[in-house]
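Supplementary Methods, section 5.1.

A reviewer requested that the exact input to the structure prediction be made available. We therefore reproduce it here, unchanged from the version used in the analyses.
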Amino acid sequence: MPSRKLPNYLRGCRKGLGLSQKEMAFLLGCRNGGSVSRYERFTREPTLKTALMLEAVLGVAIRELFGGAFEQARQQTARQAQELVEQLRTHESSPPVQRKLGVLDAILNDRHANHLNAYDNRSQ
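The structure derived from this sequence is encoded token-by-token as follows.
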């Protein structure tokens, strides 16, 4: 059984670069290291902008920095996708429904490139 992921890996990444919380806060445009501390202790979630800044500073993708949070979001999305599959299967199997089922299958099987391809094919 795989080990449970932490909500985020900010502290280890920051320390790996040798940055203090105060220095990280400065790079993020925060007033002091308190915000960084709260992010690292999982008592506060950063905004999307801050998460993107963290990715830029640390050089680690958001989904890896926030591994546990990403896994929870992925699981919730999979549950919702499965429910939508069940709803769509009650409709006729028209090309638009089949296309949607393909996108949902990609989500359920964690094949990200496939839903990008399905999106690209939609515009043709």
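Helices lie at 10-16, 21-28, 34-40, 48-58, 62-65, 67-88, 95-108, 112-122. These observations are discussed further in the main text.
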